[in-house]
């Protein structure tokens, strides 16, 4: 009983990051390429994200620094294929903005060191919404936010 209490007390000193609703995420201190760890989800791959508007919507390229992290992200994307894609813009562990890309079709294309998410729509108003989300996310990232891309609510990668 005493050992359990001591273990819980030692966990209180660990850095915590709140995000993805109100679930706490433990920051990884051993590997800077990996993001937070949620109790039932494991590590979240870290990558460099580049977003741009394109004809019909937007494109987001996620690039990892090492092949192991890239393969982990690609496997997560493959497992969650066909699910709803969303991006959570975070500052200091708090969700500042959440863009649900449900107004278009999101496809994942694997690259050598990561993947590219393309979200497009044939409807002009939906295209405008997707591009507005892209503008918002790019502005928030340039102001200091990090981005966590999720599929079906499960984080698949986070920006460095």
What is the gyration radius calculated from CA atoms? 17 Å
Question: What is the structural class?
Answer: alpha+beta
Strand percentage? over 45%
- Low-pLDDT segments, ≥5 res: 1-39
Helix count? 3
Q: Biggest β-sheet: count, sense, barrel?
A: 9 strands, mixed
Indicate the mean pLDDT: 80
| Helix/strand order | HEEEEEHEEEEHEE
Number of strands: 11
What level of helicity do the residues show?
25-40%
Cα(first) to Cα(last) distance is 40 Å
Shape: globular
Q: How many discrete domains?
A: 1
Notes on the structure:
- It contains 3 helices and 11 strands, in the order H-E-E-E-E-E-H-E-E-E-E-H-E-E.
- With 160 residues, it is of the alpha+beta class.
- It has one domain (45-159).
- Strands 3, 4, 5, 6, 7, 8, 9, 10 and 11 form a 9-stranded mixed β-sheet that branches.
- A hairpin with a 3-residue loop joins strand 3 (34-38) and strand 4 (42-54).
- The protein is globular.
List the main descriptive attributes of the protein structure presented here.
single chain, 160 residues, 3 helices
SSE layout and pairings?
Elements: H1 2-11, E1 16-19, E2 23-26, E3 34-38, E4 42-54, E5 57-63, H2 67-79, E6 85-91, E7 94-100, E8 105-111, E9 114-120, H3 124-142, E10 146-151, E11 154-159
Parallel strand pairs: 4-11
Antiparallel strand pairs: 1-2, 3-4, 4-5, 5-9, 6-7, 6-10, 8-9, 10-11
